[in-house]
Amino acid sequence: MTALSESKNTLRTADFDYALPDELIARHPAPARDQSRLCALKRTSDSIAHQQFRDLLNHLRDGDLLVLNDSKVLSARLRGQKIGSGGEVELLLVEENAANDWWVMLKPGKRVRAGTEIALRDCIGHTTNVSATVLEKNDEGHCRVRFTGVEDITFALDSIGEMPLPPYLGRAAEQADTERYQTVFARSAGSVAAPTAGLHFTSQLLDEIRGRGVRICFVTLHVGLGTFAPVKSETLAGHVMHEERYELGIETADAINKAKREGRRVVAVGTTTVRVLESIAAKQNGPIAPERGRTRIFIHPPYRFKIVDALVTNFHLPQSTLLMLVSAFAAPGELRGRERILAAYAEAIRERYRFFSYGDAMLIE
To answer: What is the pLDDT of residues 92-132, one digit of tens each?
Structure first.
C-alpha cells in the first residue's frame, strides 16, 4: 500500500490499489440473490459487522428512502463473421447514436477498416439476416457500425445477443446469466453492464423492506463500459471520466426532497444511483427537480455528499473509479476514507468474501 498523497490534486491512482486472490473473484452468482454476505461498515465507529444480505433489514429504519437504479441490461454481446474473409468477430454494443447506428467494441478490431461487413449469428450459432457495416473508428478504438436486416437492433438482441459479462469472470454467458445478471426491478433498457448492487434484492425482500416503513423509489442510469474500467492516468486529476445517461423522475425527486426536509435518510443502492443523485445536486442549488441528461461526475476523496446518507454497494476493482467513490463516501469531506475502505477490503479478503459483480455486498452508513 502506498503512502497517500497530501493534496486532492495529486491523489495517485496507485493509492487505490490492493491485492486480491484470484479465487475470491465471484465467477458465478450465489445460489439465491439474497444469500450473499453483507459487510456492514459504520463510519462513526469504524466498526465492521459480517452478516448476510438479508440482515440489511435490520439496518434500515422506518422513514428511510431506498433508491435503486432500474436500468435494464441489454444482451449487448454479438457474434458473427466478416463477409468475404470469414473471420470470426465479436461485437460489444457501447453507445447508441440512433436506431441501428451504434458505437461498438470489435474483437479482434485492430485491422478492421471502414466498409467491413459482418454477418451476425443467433444465440445457437446460425447465420441470420442481420449484418453490421463498419462506418468509422474513433481514437478509443471503438467502431461505429450500421445494422441492416432488422428495423432496430435492440428488438433483436434477445434472440441474437448474449449478456455482456465482465471479462474478469473468464467465461462465456450461460442461460442462467440471462436472469441473474439482471435486477428483479429492471425496466428501462440501456445498460451494457449491470448495476450490480441491485442484484442482491428479491421481490420478497423488497416487500419486507416496504413493510418496515421504508419507501422505495427509482432512478435510471444506463451503465457504460467505463464504469468498471481502471483509471489509466498516474493521478486522479489526469483522469477523464466516462459519460453515462440518466433520468430522475418527478416521483423520486419529490420523495427525496421530502426526506431531506424531514431529516430522514436517503439510502442509495449502488454507485450508479449515487452518480445520478449527486450529479443533479451538484447542478441544482436547493431542492432537486426531475431531470434527464448525461453525467461525467468523478467522485473521489475528499467529497461532501449532498443527498446520499447511506450506501449499499459491491466490492470494486482495484484502481477503479467505483473504489474511489466508495472511499469518498467512507469519510465524506476527508481523505482518510481511502484507508478506511482498504482496511475493510483487507478484512473482507481475510474473511473470504466474494468480490466484484457477482460477489458479496457492503453497507456503508
So the answer is: 999 899 999 999 999 998 888 999 999 999 988 888 999 99
Does domain 77-162 fall under CATH 2.40.50.140? My reply is no
Provide the whole-model pTM: 0.93
> In the chain, which residues fall in CATH 3.40.1780.10?
8-73+178-364
Judge contact between 340 and 326, C-beta under 8 A. no
Give span(s): CATH 2.40.10.240, the chain: 77-162
CATH architecture of 8-73+178-364: 3-Layer(aba) Sandwich (3.40)
